Amino acid sequence: MHTAHLWHRWSTLTECVAGGTAVARRQEPPDAADQWTEPFIAAIHRNARERAPHVLRAVGTAGVHRMLDVGGGSGAYSIAFAQASAGLRAEVLDRPAVLAIAQRHIEAAGLVGRVTTRPGDLRSDAFGEGYDLVLVSAICHMLSLEENRDLLARCYRALAPEGRVVIQDFILDPDKTSPKMAALFSLNMLVGTERGASYSEPEYAQWLNEAGFIGVRRVRLHGPSGLMVGGRL
What we know:
Layout: H1 2-10, H2 13-19, H3 32-59, E1 66-70, H4 76-84, E2 89-94, H5 96-108, E3 115-119, E4 131-137, H6 145-158, E5 159-169, E6 171-172, H7 180-192, E7 199-200, H8 201-211, E8 214-220, E9 226-231
Parallel strand pairs: 1-2, 1-4, 2-3, 4-5, 6-7
Antiparallel strand pairs: 5-9, 8-9
Helix pairs in contact: 3-4, 6-8
């Protein structure tokens, strides 16, 4: 159903290229977001469950006692990290309608109390402090350059000393025309969001360095997405 819902937006590709932003979103009825949420989160949950083992192997859980999952959707990554480490507690931040779906998955996994939810706006809210790991998965492509700079600055402030931020997303090469799936996904963001896009490794590195992160590096994963990782002193 999520793929079916994309058809209307992709049918406006010519207008979006001409205008430089999505046009279909302006024409959607007021209840479109409610109709879209359940199938979208279902699609994200399926993909996240497939990706979680790769992310876990790359990131690890050593030293991670508190984790914040920014825009965590179904909670699939928080659940996977909690299952991998008995001493880890995770918090999923997202919109209330999404958190209701996440809560179902948390309960099914038997992790109530260790994986909790917090309603919030990832575009503006302070995230708190003292987290050992802040995960930002499949979020940056929805946001503009300026929004991503602000988001990562708030992630930095939320981390404990020696904590890490991990971004998972489609990462473009410096010329921003490859790899193919990342470039195509940038078109998907053009037709579906106001200012979203796929971004390049140098762009992510610049934002992370500007926010104060150290040891910034890219981690390549099996599949179409990769990681950008930065640490806090």
